[in-house]
Design a protein that fits this description.
Residues 2-237 form the PABS domain. One of its GO terms (molecular function) is spermidine synthase activity. With 282 residues, the chain is α/β, with parallel strands linked by helices. Helix content is 30%, strand content 31%. The chain binds S-adenosylmethionine (SAM).
């Protein structure tokens, strides 16, 4: 029997998704995890009833959080993913042959375990790649002790700032993460849908402005993160954001990537912000 699942994320507004078949529904040590089949999006993973990823539209999110910073950087060897338990982010990072080592810090072993079993199309073998080092730990604890690491790119693929993900939106966490970056490093964050969660973006931008020479966000529209485009925080002391289109096209051609969303033109255009988003940046 199918069941409609209501996502309780925003005050006064909700999206509902039909679970045509529930493949898994149980509490992990940290959160309620469900995997279900939906006619439009394929398999969907929710944590505490909030959509984390879907088979159908995850490519937009994962491509934009990986190829944008990695191609803007131009020579990223060491990448850290905080969160990312479904493996989709690692999948896209590992497509870059320049990347020699990926450290993925996920708090919930249950997410990894069940994603491998019920959502193998998300990770596509990423967990077996010898370049991936999976650390089961709180990302905030990891970054507190990560001084001396030299990550070229840090990707914060967190849940929303409720429950275990809350610490990943604090100034202290961002400050510790910055200490773990190599010179020229880039940090990107998932910052929710600004039309619905404007405070989330404002908070991260305020913290980034205090930490980085270049602090902004870029956008992409992901159907199941409903309510308008999603914002990704961008922080770096480098000038990587102003890489020319010509240079990006060259790097992209060399990468051999065949993405379904990312293109160098989309990369550049994603940093064009509508007025209501600009106003959320202090
Ligand atoms: N993009 C999704 C969204 O916002 O809907 C989130 C993707 S999901 C892979 C986020 C992951 O972050 C989950 O697997 C969750 O367990 C993990 N996570 C939450 N809090 C964390 C923390 N403090 N440290 C490390 N991982 C955390």
């Amino acid at each position: 029997m199918s069941e409609w699942i209501r996502e309780p994320l925003h005050d006064g507004w909700a999206q509902t998704l039909r679970a045509d078949e529930t493949l898994f529904d149980s509490a992990t040590e940290h959160q309620r995890l469900r995997v279900f089949e939906n006619a439009r999006f394929g398999r969907i993973l929710t944590l505490d009833d909030v959509v984390q990823t879907t088979e159908g539209d995850n490519f937009i999110y994962h491509e934009m959080m990986t190829h944008v910073p990695i191609l803007a950087h131009g020579a990223a060897k060491r990448v850290c993913i905080v969160g990312g338990g479904d493996g989709g982010m690692a999948r896209e990072v590992l497509r870059h042959s320049s990347v020699e080592q990926v450290t993925m810090v996920e708090i919930d072993a249950g997410v990894v375990e069940f994603s491998k079993r019920y959502l193998p199309m998300l990770s596509q073998g990423a967990f077996e790649d010898p370049r991936l080092d999976l650390v089961i730990a709180d990302g905030a604890d990891f970054m507190r002790n990560a001084e001396g690491e030299e990550f070229d790119v840090i990707i914060i693929d967190s849940t929303d700032p409720i429950g275990p993900g809350e610490v990943l939106f604090t100034d202290t966490f961002y400050g510790h993460a910055k200490r773990a970056m190599a010179a020229g490093g880039i940090m990107v964050t998932q910052n929710g849908v600004p039309f619905m969660q404007g405070d989330e973006l404002t908070g991260t931008m305020r913290a980034f402005q205090a930490l980085f020479d270049d602090a902004t966000c870029y956008l992409a529209t992901i159907p199941t993160y409903a309510g308008g485009p999603m914002a990704f925080g961008w922080g770096t002391d480098s000038t990587a954001r102003s890489v020319s289109l010509c240079e990006l096209q060259e790097r992209f051609a060399k990468s051999g990537l065949e993405p379904d969303y990312y293109t160098p033109d989309v990369h550049q255009a994603a940093f064009a912000l509508p007025g209501y988003v600009q106003k959320l940046i202090p």
